[in-house]
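Q: Could you fold this chain for me?
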Amino acid sequence: MPINLVSPLLCQEEIDRLRIYDNITISGKIFAGRDAVLPKLVKYFRHNRLAELNVDLRGSVIFHTAVSPAGIGPTSSNKLEIEAAIPDLSAAGVKIHLGKGSLGKETVAALKKYGSVFAVTPPVTALFSTLMASKRIAAFPEEGMEALFELEVTGLPAIIAIAHGESIFNYVD
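A: Sure. Below is the predicted structure, expressed as C-alpha coordinates.
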Protein backbone atom coordinates (compact mmCIF):
# COMPACT_ATOMS: atom_id res chain seq x y z
CA MET A 1 0.00 0.00 0.00
CA PRO A 2 1.59 3.32 -1.01
CA ILE A 3 2.12 6.19 1.39
CA ASN A 4 -0.07 9.06 0.22
CA LEU A 5 1.58 12.47 0.50
CA VAL A 6 0.02 15.87 -0.16
CA SER A 7 2.28 18.71 -1.32
CA PRO A 8 3.36 21.07 0.07
CA LEU A 9 4.75 18.87 2.85
CA LEU A 10 4.91 21.31 5.74
CA CYS A 11 5.36 18.64 8.43
CA GLN A 12 8.97 17.41 8.57
CA GLU A 13 7.77 14.27 10.35
CA GLU A 14 6.19 13.10 7.07
CA ILE A 15 9.61 13.12 5.43
CA ASP A 16 11.37 11.70 8.50
CA ARG A 17 9.12 8.60 8.38
CA LEU A 18 10.03 7.77 4.77
CA ARG A 19 12.50 4.96 4.13
CA ILE A 20 14.21 3.77 0.97
CA TYR A 21 12.01 1.46 -1.10
CA ASP A 22 8.80 3.05 0.26
CA ASN A 23 6.12 3.37 -2.41
CA ILE A 24 4.54 6.81 -2.35
CA THR A 25 1.93 8.76 -4.23
CA ILE A 26 2.01 12.54 -4.40
CA SER A 27 -1.02 14.79 -4.73
CA GLY A 28 -1.26 18.57 -4.62
CA LYS A 29 0.88 21.30 -6.12
CA ILE A 30 4.37 20.40 -7.29
CA PHE A 31 6.96 22.17 -9.39
CA ALA A 32 8.34 20.79 -12.63
CA GLY A 33 11.73 21.91 -13.88
CA ARG A 34 14.99 20.59 -15.20
CA ASP A 35 18.45 21.70 -16.33
CA ALA A 36 17.29 24.95 -17.97
CA VAL A 37 15.61 26.41 -14.87
CA LEU A 38 16.91 24.72 -11.72
CA PRO A 39 20.23 26.62 -11.81
CA LYS A 40 18.23 29.84 -12.21
CA LEU A 41 16.16 28.98 -9.15
CA VAL A 42 19.39 28.39 -7.23
CA LYS A 43 20.66 31.87 -8.18
CA TYR A 44 17.42 33.44 -6.95
CA PHE A 45 17.67 31.45 -3.70
CA ARG A 46 21.32 32.35 -3.12
CA HIS A 47 20.49 36.04 -3.54
CA ASN A 48 17.37 35.75 -1.33
CA ARG A 49 15.16 36.71 -4.29
CA LEU A 50 12.71 33.76 -4.62
CA ALA A 51 9.86 36.04 -3.51
CA GLU A 52 10.35 38.05 -6.74
CA LEU A 53 9.24 34.93 -8.63
CA ASN A 54 6.31 34.36 -6.25
CA VAL A 55 7.70 30.84 -5.77
CA ASP A 56 7.58 29.31 -2.28
CA LEU A 57 9.73 26.18 -2.10
CA ARG A 58 9.00 25.38 1.57
CA GLY A 59 7.71 21.82 1.74
CA SER A 60 7.66 21.55 -2.03
CA VAL A 61 8.19 18.73 -4.48
CA ILE A 62 10.25 19.33 -7.63
CA PHE A 63 9.80 16.88 -10.48
CA HIS A 64 12.82 16.83 -12.82
CA THR A 65 10.88 17.10 -16.07
CA ALA A 66 9.83 19.38 -18.87
CA VAL A 67 6.12 19.91 -19.56
CA SER A 68 5.34 19.33 -23.20
CA PRO A 69 2.22 18.57 -25.24
CA ALA A 70 3.38 14.92 -25.14
CA GLY A 71 3.17 14.94 -21.34
CA ILE A 72 5.57 14.77 -18.43
CA GLY A 73 8.20 12.16 -17.66
CA PRO A 74 11.36 12.14 -15.56
CA THR A 75 14.69 13.29 -16.89
CA SER A 76 18.02 12.10 -15.49
CA SER A 77 18.51 13.77 -12.14
CA ASN A 78 22.27 13.21 -12.25
CA LYS A 79 22.73 15.70 -15.08
CA LEU A 80 25.28 18.24 -13.85
CA GLU A 81 22.86 21.20 -13.76
CA ILE A 82 20.14 19.25 -11.98
CA GLU A 83 22.23 17.40 -9.40
CA ALA A 84 24.24 20.54 -8.60
CA ALA A 85 20.96 22.35 -7.81
CA ILE A 86 19.65 19.73 -5.37
CA PRO A 87 21.61 20.85 -2.25
CA ASP A 88 20.60 24.52 -2.58
CA LEU A 89 17.01 23.71 -3.45
CA SER A 90 16.84 21.40 -0.42
CA ALA A 91 18.18 24.25 1.72
CA ALA A 92 15.44 26.44 0.23
CA GLY A 93 12.79 24.01 1.46
CA VAL A 94 12.29 21.38 -1.25
CA LYS A 95 11.42 18.14 0.55
CA ILE A 96 11.12 15.70 -2.36
CA HIS A 97 13.21 15.73 -5.53
CA LEU A 98 11.55 13.47 -8.08
CA GLY A 99 13.35 12.12 -11.13
CA LYS A 100 15.36 9.13 -12.28
CA GLY A 101 18.89 7.82 -11.96
CA SER A 102 21.54 7.57 -9.29
CA LEU A 103 22.91 10.57 -7.37
CA GLY A 104 26.40 11.08 -5.96
CA LYS A 105 27.46 10.63 -2.35
CA GLU A 106 27.76 14.39 -1.83
CA THR A 107 24.16 14.87 -2.93
CA VAL A 108 23.04 12.04 -0.63
CA ALA A 109 24.76 13.85 2.25
CA ALA A 110 23.13 17.17 1.31
CA LEU A 111 19.68 15.56 1.19
CA LYS A 112 20.26 14.16 4.68
CA LYS A 113 21.54 17.52 5.98
CA TYR A 114 18.42 19.37 4.81
CA GLY A 115 15.87 16.68 5.68
CA SER A 116 14.94 16.06 2.04
CA VAL A 117 14.57 12.86 0.01
CA PHE A 118 14.97 11.73 -3.59
CA ALA A 119 12.31 9.58 -5.22
CA VAL A 120 12.45 7.84 -8.57
CA THR A 121 9.65 7.17 -10.93
CA PRO A 122 9.48 5.24 -14.18
CA PRO A 123 9.27 7.18 -17.46
CA VAL A 124 5.59 6.67 -18.23
CA THR A 125 4.75 10.00 -19.81
CA ALA A 126 1.24 9.14 -20.97
CA LEU A 127 0.17 7.94 -17.50
CA PHE A 128 1.59 10.99 -15.75
CA SER A 129 -0.25 13.33 -18.11
CA THR A 130 -3.56 11.88 -16.93
CA LEU A 131 -2.59 12.65 -13.32
CA MET A 132 -2.22 16.42 -13.96
CA ALA A 133 -5.26 18.38 -12.79
CA SER A 134 -3.79 21.75 -13.78
CA LYS A 135 -0.61 23.43 -14.96
CA ARG A 136 0.72 26.96 -15.18
CA ILE A 137 4.09 28.53 -15.85
CA ALA A 138 5.46 29.63 -12.48
CA ALA A 139 8.70 31.25 -13.70
CA PHE A 140 11.04 31.59 -16.68
CA PRO A 141 8.47 31.44 -19.53
CA GLU A 142 11.27 32.12 -22.03
CA GLU A 143 12.37 28.50 -21.54
CA GLY A 144 9.21 27.16 -23.23
CA MET A 145 8.49 23.58 -22.20
CA GLU A 146 11.53 23.74 -19.88
CA ALA A 147 10.10 26.69 -17.92
CA LEU A 148 9.40 26.19 -14.22
CA PHE A 149 5.84 24.88 -14.08
CA GLU A 150 3.53 24.56 -11.13
CA LEU A 151 1.40 21.44 -11.56
CA GLU A 152 -1.46 20.08 -9.57
CA VAL A 153 -1.28 16.30 -9.54
CA THR A 154 -3.33 13.46 -8.13
CA GLY A 155 -1.69 10.18 -7.13
CA LEU A 156 1.68 10.60 -8.88
CA PRO A 157 3.56 7.36 -8.06
CA ALA A 158 7.21 7.14 -6.99
CA ILE A 159 9.64 5.08 -4.92
CA ILE A 160 11.90 6.61 -2.29
CA ALA A 161 15.46 6.04 -3.53
CA ILE A 162 17.47 8.17 -1.09
CA ALA A 163 16.49 9.07 2.47
CA HIS A 164 18.38 9.92 5.64
CA GLY A 165 21.79 9.15 4.11
CA GLU A 166 20.73 5.75 2.74
CA SER A 167 20.43 4.97 -0.97
CA ILE A 168 19.11 2.12 -3.10
CA PHE A 169 22.00 2.74 -5.49
CA ASN A 170 25.35 0.95 -5.18
CA TYR A 171 28.39 3.17 -5.00
CA VAL A 172 31.88 2.14 -5.99
CA ASP A 173 34.78 3.91 -4.29
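A (continued): The chain has one domain: 3-166.
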